Amino acid sequence: MSELGAITLAILVTYLGAEIARKLNYPRVIGQLVISFLLAIPAVKILFPAASIEVISILAELGVIFLLLLTGFQLNLSEFKKNKRESLVIAVFAAVVPFLLGFFLGQLWHFGWQTSLVLGACMAVTAEGTTAALLIEMKQMKTRLSSIILGAGIIDDAFEILFLSLIFFLANTSPGAENTHTFWEVVGKYELFIIGIWLAFHFLPKWIQRVQQTQTTVSLISTMITVGLLIAFFSEFVGIGSVFGAFIAGLILQKSFFNPKTRDKDTRALRIFVFAFIVPFFFVNIGLNFDYQALINNPVLAASVLVIALIGKIAGTLLTRPFVNLTYSQLHLIGWGLNSRGVMELVLAHIALEANLISTELYSAIVFMAITTTLIFPFVFKAIIKKTLKL
To answer: Which residues have CB under 8 Å from 219's CB, separation 6+?
Structure first.
């Protein structure tokens, strides 16, 4: 199959997955993710020759960049202020506890400390988008516990970037890394990056404000893409990583340039572009890198990763009882609200795999855990709400 044929097939498969998920009241991205694993079947994977897989890999990298650009752009700290104390305490415990459990699980399996850190990072993140979509569907967005869940998810975005930076650091300092630098070289690169971002904050606004005056969707999306790619490229050039730069670009676009009154419209325009065309290739690339045989060869590893992931979020949330004004039943519900993994965890795993920080076997186990926690989350969450009658 030609490269164009492979791209067309990839778009078709993810489109079908998204539509099936929509019919079943799941977020569209879940359908795209699940159906992409059909591509891991050997009889299907042969339709993608090496040249087309390389093209899809490049498009997948763009997908990751725009995902982080969108994350930075739609980060809404005002929601956090509503229940900031409870959200902060729960977010910290719900990230640190699964991170530690994941790290010790890696040590139990005799993985290196770097691999164990990656596993812990993948355990710690939360799919805030999946949770928000379900709360909207159930008409529960205005309740107190929903506000706490979403507030904790916003803080979790900061942990995601912290873990992302950790993985980039491990990738650049591991013994086999091509870009190993001395301490002072690393410091110099970070200083260059900070100076560049400072200049962007001070000199880009005038140009972008002129573009905003046209008030057209085309010019808006073009501006976002241009700024996102420029800063992502600069971030990659100085050795920090394009994904981190994309997140910073999203923050710059949100905080400095765009009118807060048009936030929802701007975010929706960017989401349409990102999820309609770019992100599907990220999911397809995950499917093409997934290895069913790895799960079959070591089902105990996959099961242990899944169990620790489920326990970690709930245990971390329950441990906050002495510090918050919430009951154990309320915390149990919040714990499940934070238990869905998703795209960001897969981004972390994908980058770690590309940097040879984790094996294909562990990568497949992490992906299996992300899918399972995301799929079971709506059923368990709805059941708990029905049992307790209300949030």
So the answer is: 211
Distance CA 157, CA 164 (A): 10
Among residues 133, 11, 156, 149, the alpha carbon closest in space to that of 71 is found at 156
Q: Tell me how far apart the alpha carbons of residues 391 and 382 are, in angstroms, rounded to a whole number.
A: 11
The backbone torsions φ and ψ at residue 293, rounded to the nearest 5 degrees and listed phi first, read -65, -30
Tokens of 5: 């044929």
In angstroms, what is the C-alpha Rg of the chain? 21
Maximum CA extent, the chain: 60
Q: Write out pLDDT tens, residues 156-186.
A: 767 777 787 777 777 766 555 554 455 556 5
Whether 131 shows a pLDDT value over 70: the answer reads no
Domain boundaries along the sequence of the chain: 3-388
Q: What is the DSSP code (8-state) at residue 127?
A: -
| Mean of the per-residue pLDDT values of the chain | 78
Is 80 exceeded by the pLDDT of residue 153?
no
Q: Which one, of 117, 106, 128, lies nearest residue 165 by Cα?
A: 117
- Phi and psi dihedrals of 375, rounded to 5? -75, -40
Mapped to the 3 state alphabet, what secondary structure does 243-295 carry? Answer: HHHHHHHHHHHHHHHCCHHHHHHHHHHHHHHHHHHHHHHHHHHHHHHCCHHHH
Q: How far apart are CA 330 and CA 384, in angstroms?
A: 10
CATH assignment of 3-388, among 3.40.190.10, 2.40.50.320, 1.20.1530.20, 1.10.1040.10: 1.20.1530.20
